[in-house]
Amino acid sequence: MPENMPGRINPEHITIVLNQPRYPENIGSGARAMRNMGFYNLIVVDPENFDLEKVEKLSTHAARDVVEKIQIFDNLQKALSPFNYVVGTTARLGGQRQVNSPSVMAEKLIPISKENNIAIVFGREDRGLSNEDIRLCHGLVNIPTADFSSLNLAQAVMVICYELFNAGTKKKHDFNPRLASCYELNGMYKDLKDVLIKISYINPENPDYWMNYIRKFFTRMNLRAREVGIIRGLIRQVNWYGQKMYKDGLDHKKNQEADL
């Protein structure tokens, strides 16, 4: 792309993820909305009713290529494992949630999309994404509305895809390297939680409460795969040293008892 052209989202690196959709018609309408905006990658997670005939009817022939490539998974964590950056959609604001508008989110994704696979996750029609689902996300986006805040799933997909399609800026973006995948990050968080419990840094009865803060800390850094590998190496070394000191303490105690 010439330098004097505005930066744009790389559509090949964008995947729309519908988590536990209830109605096949919404899947079809969502696929059609994606196709209108030039996006083709669609994942459906644990659908309540995946009636292909109804999906195809609402997607129309224009989005047949999107429907034919739909990937279906049984749980969200597995579906998101290969992605380097995940954005969750939410209607709830406040609390500890740092939420962007669709336009701001789209601008932020321009440089990331050059070298990274990005998932945009939509929750169930009746209750959206759970707190557990949101923990898998690097960022959150909210579609502002007037007094009536309930959007149809396909409408929400259209709004987000429109902003992604329309996003662009005249300034040259900095190089953005490949980020660690969700699979790599989840492995790091598991190792970190285990060792922090062992050294009594976090409460073993409620470790996820403290891990949420740690996740947010690392999420702000946009860790690369190599950096995750370094952190996991440090965690393994801390774990090894703790076990060694414990064993050395037992051996020292046995030697003392033997000398008595």
Automatic annotation (TrEMBL):
GO terms for biological process: tRNA nucleoside ribose methylation. Residues 14-162 form the tRNA/rRNA methyltransferase SpoU type domain. CDD domains: SpoU-like_TrmJ. GO terms for cellular component: cytosol. Transmembrane segments: none annotated. It comes from the Bacteria. It is an enzyme of class 2 (transferase). Pfam families: SpoU_methylase. NCBIfam families: rRNA_methyl_1. This is tRNA (cytidine/uridine-2'-O-)-methyltransferase TrmJ. It comes from Desulfonema limicola.
